[in-house]
Amino acid sequence: MAISRLSGQMFQSTLIRDGINLSFQDTAISNSTLYLDVANTSVGVNANNLSATFQVGGNILSETDITATSNVVAQNSLVSANVVSPSLMTISSAASGNILIDAAGYTRVVGTDAFYVPVGNTIQRPNSPELGAVRFNTTTSSLEFWDGLEWISAGADLNVITNQTIEPDGSTFTFTLDQASTAESILVTINGLNQTPVVDYTVTGNSISFTTTPIVTDTIQIRYIATTATVTAIVNANSYVQVDGASSNVSITVNGTLSAEFAETGVYVTDLYSSGRIQLPVYNVASATALTGNAAGQLIYVSNGDSGNPCLAVYSGGTWKRVALGATIST
Fold first, then answer.
1. Percentage helix, strand, coil, to 5, in the chain?
2. 254-307 pLDDT tens trace
3. Rounded to whole angstroms, how far apart are CA atoms 93 and 188?
4. 247 contact partners, CB below 8 Å, separation of at least 6
5. Measured on CA atoms in the order 154, 160, 161, 163, is the torsion positive or negative?
6. DSSP 8-state code for residue 157
7. Pairwise CA distance, residues 187 & 196, whole Å
8. Do residues 55 and 43 touch, judged by C-beta distance below 8 A?
9. Backbone angles phi and psi of 152, in degrees to 5
10. C-alpha radius of gyration, the chain, whole number
11. At CA 41, angle to CA 35 and CA 45, rounded to 5?
12. Quick one: DSSP state of residue 273?
């Protein structure tokens, strides 16, 4: 006989559990509609194999705030007006999964620290990026975005024209510039009239001095044609070729592989091409003799320069001098 209603002392004695779990289960399903794990103080909804204090086998719909003192893990959907965690909050998906934030309006990340984007080198770029994808490229040391056709570095342009206005007081002839410059790298006008560098003004560092003291009604305009910038790397549009001068040496990288490196002590090649070989230009005697614009110390390979045999040749300042090749290398 099934009991459809509990009341009085029977209701109280039924709900007071002393280490004994309580399950409300529909016989048509395997999971409990409501499961109380008394021993571990856990509650399950549509779940009876609990691994959390509160576990739901389905979607969670909240019309107010959800406040968690530890982790909130959803196997399906988590729909809420607000999710608050007093400590670190981590939102993750499977290794091959994506996380989608779908907002009708804008998405705002508030705070005073920073917003971090994916970080990786050029080779680690995604294979099929979507328009607007943003990442930090450790190869080029710059933020980059996908414009639908190629990755674009979001670095500052080398040539930037900016403007500074100076209102003189009638007695001062030296003023502070917004940035260090030279007389030739800025355009200076007084009341719209161009001023001649060195003749009408001189520049030292971030100071400009006028030959004639401007009067109080003058308006001085300073236009900076080019900012002073330190460039540590030059990269082509698809990052296939990169010239990097961030260290004491200058390295040339092709498709992610170091191809050549020049030391600061001079034109010293430590490695040229991935195979470590230097390829000299190849000529025969006729084509080498016809070369123009030669400079002393240049080195070439001549296929028939040593009485018909190959040799090296060094330009002496007036002619190519052969360097005979010796016997085959051996140990």
1. 5, 35, 60
2. 777 777 777 655 444 545 544 566 778 899 999 999 999 898 989 999 999 999
3. 58
4. none
5. positive
6. P
7. 9
8. yes
9. -115, 125
10. 38
11. 25
12. T
